[in-house]
Every structure is written in structure tokens, then in C-alpha cells.
Amino acid sequence: MSNKFWLVVQYPMKSIKGSQRDHWLRDKVMEYLEVSLADANFGYVNGFDMGKCISDPNKYALNIFCVITEEERSIALVKRVLRDSRLDYTRVKIATMPYGEEGTYTLKYAFKKGVTDFSL
Q: What angle do CA 13, 18, 23 make, to 5 degrees?
């Protein structure tokens, strides 16, 4: 088995508690990723958080955390699942970090060209 990574799928939110749509999105993304990652034997969904961003308390985000193997193939799978399932693919950021290490996430995909920063 190859090295493990944390993968986070991040969506912006407009309020600290999130809208009904944000809660629906959280449930669907977690459900679809759990099945897809397990079927491909790439990992599993580890949980989520919703609320204020650590880096900017005036911004809010939904973060869905996964533990994955095969980083590049897992990222490609996550992107395909979000796009094909119409789960707000046009607003998402995806970042990874080596599992078991303290550090920062590295942005691997952003919905908008030119976006290079990522933080929880």
C-alpha cells in the first residue's frame, strides 16, 4: 500500500451555520465520495467541519476530509465524482497533505484559474 494523504474538499459558505443547500451538499458529497473511494479502494471519508475559516474569521467554509492513497488518482476520482454528480464542482477547492504529519495543505485544484492559496 502506498503512502496515505489527507484530502480536503472545500466549499465556500455565506454564513457560519450554512444554508439548507450547504447541509444537503455536505450529505451528498460525503455519501458519493464514501462509495466512490471505497469502490476504487482509494480511501474513505473521515468527517467534515462547517463554520469560520481559521485563516479569515470573516469567511465561512464547508470542509470534507478524506484519507486517501494514490494521491493523483484519488484527486482525479474526486473531481470526476463531483462533476458528474453535479455537486457544485464550479465552487470547489481540493487540497492534500501527507497523512500523520503536522503541516499545511497544498492546493491541488481550484474552481477558478489563478487561485493559488488554500487554508482551512
A: 105
Alpha carbon distance 42, 25 (integer Å): 22
Coil, strand, or helix at residue 110? Answer: strand
Contact 90, 96 (CB under 8 A): no
Which amino acid is residue 14, in one-letter code? K
Q: In what order do the strands lie in the sheet with 60-69?
A: 43-52, 60-69, 4-13, 93-98, 106-110
CA 12 to mean position of chain CA atoms: 11
User: pLDDT tens for residues 42-76?
Assistant: 999 999 999 999 888 899 999 999 999 999 999 99
